[in-house]
Amino acid sequence: MSRVFNFGAGPAVLPEAVLEHARQEMLEWQGSGMSVMEMSHRGKEFMAIAAQAEQDLRELMAIPGNYKVLFLQGGASSQFAMVPVNLLRGKKKADYINTGSWSKKAIEEGKRFCEVNIAAKSRTDGVATIPPQSEWRLDAHAAYVHYTPNETIDGVEFHWIPDTGPVPLVADMSSTILSRPIDVSRFGVIYAGAQKNIGPAGLAVVIVREDLIGMVLPGMPIMFDYKTHAENDSMYNTPPTYGWYFAGLVFAWLKKQGGLTAMAGINKRKARRLYAAIDTSDFYRNPVDPACRSWMNVPFTLADSNLDDTFLAQAKKAGLVALKGHRSVGGMRASIYNAMPEAGITALVDFMRDFEKRYT
Ligand code: PMP
């Protein structure tokens, strides 16, 4: 077996210890005589797995008791619609902050249900920045404010939480959830596709304040109502059981690493090392203002883009894969989620330095 360092944006690297644990339990989960994949979601074994996963996530993120945690299907993309459908609550408008590619997707979907006010937009004239909140034009009549704390494609991350007063704040945390502690009580809804920092693709986690549940737009599908899932402990229909189980193993692994404060320290250090390698060279460049650079997704370009394919091919030979930037922006991108070990950063930085020497 030879495992590579996988810098893919998602589905992404998972903790090796967790993969190993899942392998041990693949054929038979704890004396049950079957794999988790084969269990009824309503049986006592799976109910215990599900409850433990939720409890561990609550503990890791210090989720207050007045929030429901939902384990759903449909990815983060379904939440682009479920958010307006559930949170408009008779209002006609919502504020959106546009900081990049995933914000735009959320905005596009939001426009199908309400009047979207772009309260702020990141500047992208060569160096991407997030405008300070003092420059935002929030609408006092907005039903909610939606933002994307970490833009997976653009590598732009908020290192602060907006203050929206009584207007519920909604965050697409797909590519930053669990990377550091956050104050959940500042949010109305937090949602994330699992396939980056949580577990395998096919699961979405939604954390929603209870008072925002139960006012879905009339005529919406039952499956699009948060109340359906909240009242049924995410078991109105068959949930993504294996993904839920695997997420539980990741949560337990995170607790063992020292929780989110420890992860934040590690993630900050990993990111700092990679940005330092980029900044100290004229060969590589990152297009984001240092104040809002992502700890999780690090895009960078080569001084000569004709070398891109050579860089990628040689990186792959060195066991460093999936470094190609998103097709919409080009260049490179290293996604360095919780499960990327420090050794992966060392290997990448060493490779980059060596490549630079050989091609300048
Ligand atoms: N939001 C963000 C920030 C993302 O990175 C992604 C996936 N890359 C999505 C939403 C879409 O997630 P999904 O594929 O789970 O619908």
- The computed structural class is alpha/beta
Per CATH, which architecture of the largest domain? 3-Layer(aba) Sandwich
- Hetero compounds: 4'-deoxy-4'-aminopyridoxal-5'-phosphate
Question: Which CATH class of the largest domain applies here?
Answer: Alpha Beta
In percent terms, what proportion of residues is strand?
15-25%
CATH superfamily of the largest domain: Type I PLP-dependent aspartate aminotransferase-like (Major domain)
Shape descriptor: globular
Q: Whole-Å distance between the termini?
A: 35 Å
At the fold tier of CATH, the topology name of the largest domain is Aspartate Aminotransferase, domain 2
- What is the string of helix and strand elements? EHHEHEHEEEEEEEHHHEEHEEH
The averaged pLDDT comes out at: 97
Q: Unreliable segments (pLDDT under 50, ≥5 consecutive)?
A: none
Q: How many helices in DSSP terms? A: 9
The portion of residues assigned to helices is 25-40%
Keywords summarizing the entry:
360 residues, alpha/beta, Aspartate Aminotransferase, domain 2, Aspartate Aminotransferase, domain 1, 2 domains, three-stranded antiparallel beta sheet, 9 helices, 34% helix, binds 4'-deoxy-4'-aminopyridoxal-5'-phosphate
